[in-house]
Write a structure and sequence with these properties.
Blueprint: H1 5-20, H2 29-35, H3 54-57, H4 61-65, H5 74-99, E1 106-108, E2 111-119, E3 124-133, E4 142-151, E5 175-184, E6 187-188, E7 191-192, E8 195-201, E9 215-222, E10 226-234, E11 248-255, E12 260-268, E13 278-286, E14 292-300, E15 309-315, E16 321-326, E17 329-332
Helix pairs in contact: 1-2
């Protein structure tokens, strides 16, 4: 046995107990290594100031979005965007986890293939592939993976030529839905609790998400000290039109002590007296006690240099507003803001 394989098998042995808890029978010790090569939801979760983890509380994106935001509540608007993006990230990992309930259909050294697996509820077939690369970046190396999907049932005999290099297989209709890579760090049970990676979701090929854009790219880097996420949406549509805008970017950082920051922009009909939709840009930061400051600018699309509206909101550790300014109208005490500016 090669020296590089010995630590892998040692790690796999340590993972067996954890994998038994999730009901993955018919798996070899080597198979279990691949489960550590996938990120967990909590590694991709955006948690704005004062918000509990949706995973710990059993909250959903739909539940959070049902709560209306009061006029000028910038913290609430930031929460809604984060919750919406969490829903997309969780959708990606749910798709993978659903496939991994089944044992691999093909085993090769440093490669596993699942499927095609037919989902009765969705009336669709999925194929998932993982490849491990021993690049010296961690004890497990780096894992590259991809998910293909097609409507209807795909015969297994037709997928031999499909791989992560295939975008669309004409014989089966299997189209690339998700691709990515992950370099796991420390392990927690059967899965890595830290690591560096990226995910790319082909939004235009996922029915519920077609309206969001053509593609979503998530880059993440997290360890015991911080969670850092960058999301980019390519080909997002202007609300009420079929026109694409430039790439939209969202950035989120949360430190181990609970402090953090986020920046994003979005479209909404924020100025009813103005025709069309406006561009909303929000930045926020909060400290370990969850007291924070948010700043927002509303402008015509593509004209941030001449804003229609500028707002600042500050809140205390109990999430109560201590200062708010909308253009020249203000209430509260700006000296009470935990940050004087972002």
């Amino acid at each position: 046995m090669s020296p590089t394989r010995r630590p892998l098998l040692a790690l796999a042995t340590a993972l067996v107990a954890g994998m038994a808890l999730v009901g993955c029978g018919n798996l070899s010790e080597d198979d279990l290594v691949f489960f550590a090569g996938l990120p967990q939801k909590k590694q991709l979760e955006m948690r704005p100031a004062g918000e509990p983890s949706a995973l710990e509380q059993g909250n959903s994106a739909e539940q959070a979005l049902e709560v209306p935001c009061a006029d000028g509540d910038l913290r609430c608007h930031a929460r809604k965007v984060a919750t919406d993006l969490n829903g997309i990230s969780f959708f990606l990992l749910d798709l993978v986890d659903e496939v991994l309930k089944h044992p691999p259909t093909r085993r090769e050294r440093d490669r596993r293939v699942w499927g095609p697996i037919f989902d009765v509820a969705k009336q669709a077939s999925y194929r998932f592939e993982m490849v491990r690369v021993d690049d010296g970046t961690s004890a497990l190396g780096t894992f590259r993976f991809c998910v293909h999907g097609a409507a209807g049932r795909v015969p297994a005999r037709l997928v031999d030529e499909v791989s992560c290099d295939v975008d669309l297989d004409e014989d089966t209709g299997l189209a690339l839905l998700l691709s990515g890579q992950f370099t796991p760090g420390d392990l927690e049970g059967a899965r890595a609790r830290s690591g560096v990676g990226s995910l790319t979701l082909e939004l235009s090929r996922v029915e519920p998400l077609k309206g969001v854009g053509r593609q979503l790219v998530i880059d993440f880097d997290n360890d015991e000290e911080r969670t850092e996420l960058h999301l980019g949406v390519v080909g997002a549509l202007l609300a009420g039109t079929n026109l694409e805008r430039e790439r939209v970017d969202y950035d989120f950082v949360r430190e181990a002590d609970g402090s953090g920051r986020l920046n994003f922009d979005a479209f909404a009909n924020l100025a009813p007296e103005q025709p069309g939709v406006e561009n909303l840009v929000i930045g926020a930061a909060w400290d370990t006690e969850q007291a924070g400051r948010a700043e927002a600018t509303v402008a015509r699309v593509g004209d941030l240099e001449h804003p229609l509206f500028v707002a600042v909101q500050c809140w205390d550790a109990e999430l109560g507003e201590v200062y708010f300014r909308a253009n020249d109208d203000a209430r509260g005490d700006e000296d009470a803001c935990v940050y004087s500016a972002l």
